[in-house]
Amino acid sequence: MTKGACSFTGHRILSAGELPQINARLDEIIGQLADRGIERYLLGGALGFDTLAAKAVLRQRERNSRIELVMCLPCKSQEKYWPVGDKNTYFELLAAADETVYVSERYFTGCMAKRNLYMVENSEICVAYLKRAGSGTGQTVRMARERGLEVANLYCFGYSEFSRV
Questions:
Q1: In the 3-class helix/strand/coil scheme, how is the chain assigned residue by residue?
Q2: Model pLDDT for residues 41-69, shown as the tens digit of each residue
């Protein structure tokens, strides 16, 4: 567990109707965490929630220069099959990141889980957008809870209350 660091996990597919609420919740919780002294934010670089969270961290960094965006990626070719627009956003986020960590040079079955474990082991807080427990996001939240991290699920009402349960 790394003090002063927060990891994010969430679903790749989000409905357009969810986006404004997710963005508002991300801005709110990252502001709360920054007020608590959390300055290092670990993101998995995937589509969907990870992208929204990375953009929210960058918005917070505009107000607080101590904020660090760390892109934790499963492999160097993660974006290989993505649409061009998503690739462009991905590379913009990588360029804006303070640090980029690759847990593997190449894709292999399990590299996403390895990336998620890396993020959990290097943070004290996990912010999630978890709707379906039987998913990679669900697995990451379980890993975080097993290791005693504070977890906030932005999908749930009362998300600002962290839990260790």
A1: CCCCEEEEEECCCCCHHHHHHHHHHHHHHHHHHHHCCCCEEEECCCCCHHHHHHHHHHHHHHHCCCCEEEEEECCCCCCCCCCHHHHHHHHHHHHHCCEEEECCCCCCCCHHHHHHHHHHHCCCEEEEECCCCCCHHHHHHHHHHHCCCEEEECCCCCCCCCECC
A2: 999 999 999 999 999 999 999 999 999 99
